[in-house]
Design brief:
This protein is α+β, with helices and mostly antiparallel strands. The protein contains 1 helix and 4 strands; from the N terminus they run E-H-E-E-E. It has a 4-stranded mixed sheet, covered by helices on one side. Strand 3 and strand 4 (65-71) form a beta hairpin.
Length: 79
């Protein structure tokens, strides 16, 4: 099912700020190079933008990546 992230076994939060222009390939590369983790494992990876009003989640669903994007209209995430 598209975007069923409830099956993720682990959750990783990227400390600091991420360039929100990055998409699936850029974020997956970041997971591999910066964190030495496998983006194809059954895990959810969270990234936040500098202004803390945008968040992206990357999840491998078995046959492809799911990229979720949330932008707050007001307020910000506690990051």
């Amino acid at each position: 099912m598209l975007g069923d992230i409830s099956k993720a076994e682990k959750l990783y939060v990227a400390c600091g700020y991420t360039d929100m222009r990055k998409s699936i390939d850029g974020l997956a590369s970041m997971v591999q190079q910066n964190f030495q983790l496998n983006p194809f494992q059954n895990s959810l990876f969270l990234f936040c933008g500098r202004r803390r009003d945008r968040m992206k989640a990357l999840y491998w669903e078995g046959d492809g990546f799911v990229l979720l994007y949330k932008r707050l209209e007001s307020g910000n995430f506690q990051w």
